[in-house]
Give the backbone structure.
Amino acid sequence: QAWSETYSQAVNAEVNSVAYLSHNWAGFSLNVSADRYQNFFQNPATNAYSDQIKILHVPMVEVNALEQPVLASPLRWAVDSSAGGLQRSEPGFVTANLVGRLDIRPRVALPLQWMGWDLRPEIAVHDTLYTQQLTPSATNTLGTASGTELNRRDLEASIELRPPVLQKVFGREILGRRLKHVIEPIFTYNYTTGVDNFQNIIRFDQTDILSNTSEFQYDLIQRIYSRRRSTHPEPGCEAPTPAAGHPEILPPAYIPGVSALRPRCEDQSNTTRELLSWEVKQKYYINESFGGALVTNRRNVFASTDDLTGIAFLNGPRTWSPVISKLRLQTSANTDVQWQLDYDPVLGRINSSATFVEYRIGEYFVGVSDSFFHTLPVPSAESTGNAPLVFDQVRYLLGYGHPNKRGFSGGFSMGYDQNLDFLQYAAGQSSYNWDCCGLSVEYRHNNVPGINVENQYRFAFTLANIGSFGNMRRQERLY
């Protein structure tokens, strides 16, 4: 926290360092990378965040081949492969300085089409070789890393069915727009067998959480498109102007979700946009124990659950996963509404809900976001109970102008924890730009409960086309 300038940095427990090099050519991809991951957590004995998990990938080499036809047949082949050295350490557990891992996954698919129906069966052989494995220990709940090699071989198969897309164009215009409703259903079956040593695999990354599974997934995507036939400009829309002396160069457009640039105007004649998209998906697990990999009363994360949602939900056998809903609404280029919901029908509760709303008219912008989720209980000898923790934080953003606006601009942001009922942070920023230069000032109030409450004052003086001086960094600006 002593090195942090913002609230999010002060409370973030993760530290990532990554270096990579990529080269793509003719349907092939070569990637060389090295990364270091740290995650600090609370020591139950000292109640301080002094313990850490550290994972290294030094280095990793990946060679992938994108899908390509098998001679003149309708078959398509592809392969993913990687090799590298890894290391993991945490209190009570440490691997060798470098654990070798070789992974290869060739696959063959047969895409079929008939009368608007798309059927895609695929089969893959997956082989992963480790130079160390995890051995259960009677004295250490985490186990120990032994020098014995481990070879994980599995067979994977999937079938994806896409029925014909349903669509309807409405004859009546609404607010000068013609509407089109599209429904895209997708049904998938996944089967993986052969992972009989899941409990002996050391966890480094997503490659190591593959388990046996037999599951169905449905995915229902609805989209509403709108076409504007009128030529009336949108309220507060500022038409882009070419750069001086270069009529072919226009300034960068405003990106929804980043209140940094001026609002964007669209061509009002016959403009078609995706007004709304709503995706609902869920999985049905036939293999409830995931081939014996599942441990009851413990938070389990498998490849099958991770590709569905980032919120862990599996702590016992179950047939139905949570229902995942992703909704996005964009009535104009300056409006953005997003809502992602994970509802668990087994527990009868909302696992997570993330909402984001932003609207901009002219030089004014406002944004609100809310993050809510439950965590699964984690039984331990030190815990006083197994009640799940609830998190609920809301963020507000209000402002006027943009960084390159001549004259005055200002913004205000705050974060509030509705579950614990306290103000996390508040920040205000104002700036004034002349033809030659600009001055920005900022005030921040950070509140880290039990650690520190502080006020920060920052400024930045900018010379046009030269640079800036001060302690206000670009990535921490409010606009």
